[in-house]
Design goal:
This protein is of the alpha+beta class. The protein contains 3 helices and 9 strands; from the N terminus they run ββββββαβαβαβ. The strands form 2 sheets. The chain has a 6-stranded mixed beta sheet with strand order 1-6-5-9-7-8, with helices on both faces. It has a 3-stranded antiparallel beta sheet with strand order 2-3-4.
């Protein structure tokens, strides 16, 4: 049996988060999420130490990139490597780092305002 990558081909507000996952578009997803202009993807990152240029390649190499990327680092705010900030900035993407809960709430507001926003959200318990 072959597993397909978790992908929702659209953008949707996050209805709930916690217990190791997220709820959006009437569905639930266990694990972290990467929200890019082409949809919502499962994201293999489980801790802030795994966040790097490689883990955000889907955002960095996309034809359509968000103007702002919200990075939800779990229960606490964590500093990100300078090379990651530089890579995003070189592509015209601003980065805001916050706890996952704050990132979810901010994402929902900006999405409702039809702003160009992406999110990388580490699941929290």
């Amino acid at each position: 049996m072959r597993m397909r990558e978790a992908h929702y081909p659209g953008l949707a507000p996050i209805e709930a988060y916690g217990n190791g996952g997220f709820r959006f578009a009437g569905m639930s997803h266990r694990g972290s999420l990467l929200i890019a202009p082409d949809g919502i993807h499962g994201w293999s990152v489980t801790s802030p130490s795994e966040i790097n240029v490689g883990s955000l390649v889907r955002i960095l190499e996309a034809e359509a990139r968000p103007e702002l990327l919200l990075l939800g680092t779990g229960a606490d705010i964590v500093a990100v490597p300078r090379d990651l900030r530089a890579a995003l900035s070189s592509k015209g993407i601003r980065l805001e780092v916050m706890a996952t809960g704050a990132a979810v709430r901010t994402y929902n507001v900006l999405l409702a305002e039809k702003r160009s926003v992406g999110a990388a959200l580490i699941a929290v318990a």
